Amino acid sequence: MASNRRLGRETDHRMLMLRNLVTSLLDKGRIVTTVTRAKEARSLAEKMITLAKKGDLHSRRMAMAFVTDETVVKNLFDNIGPKYTDREGGYTRIVKIGPRRGDAAEMVILELV
Question: Which of 25, 60, 90, 96 shows the greatest Cβ crowding within 10 Å of its Cβ?
Fold first, then answer.
């Protein structure tokens, strides 16, 4: 994991939550989440896109080990990766949308550029 944000969860739960966030982001193209979750998911999603840009079998297997859905991995390597071949990083964007109604947590939209 890239940084020391624990997000109030044990390691197994935190990694599973981040895997689900990254899978949803790569599947849908944008997700709504909190700022800290988005910052963690952003680094992991960019690593997956970098693997897709390489496009070899080892990269595909590494992506399959992290992303929870085979169809998302296929889309990642067939569509998303080739789209960013001329880009040197910065595949995602975080846009703040204001506080959440229930607990006033700062919410953002995490989307692919």
Answer: 25
Quickly tell me which residue has 């840009």 as its tokens.
53
In CATH, what number is assigned to the domain containing residue 97?
3.90.1030.10
| Domain housing 88 | 11-112
Q: Are 68 and 20 in contact (CB under 8 A)?
A: yes
**Residue 61: other Cβ atoms inside 10 A:** 11
- Please count the other Cβ atoms lying within 10 Å of the Cβ belonging to residue 52: 25
Q: What is the pTM of this model?
A: 0.92
Q: Encode pLDDT of 70-98 as tens digits.
A: 999 999 999 999 999 999 999 999 999 99
Buried b (16+ CB within 10 A) or exposed e, 72-93: bbebbbeebbeebeeeeeebbe
Q: Which of 18, 68, 4 is nearest to 76 (CA)?
A: 68
Distance (Å, whole) CA 69 – CA 71: 6
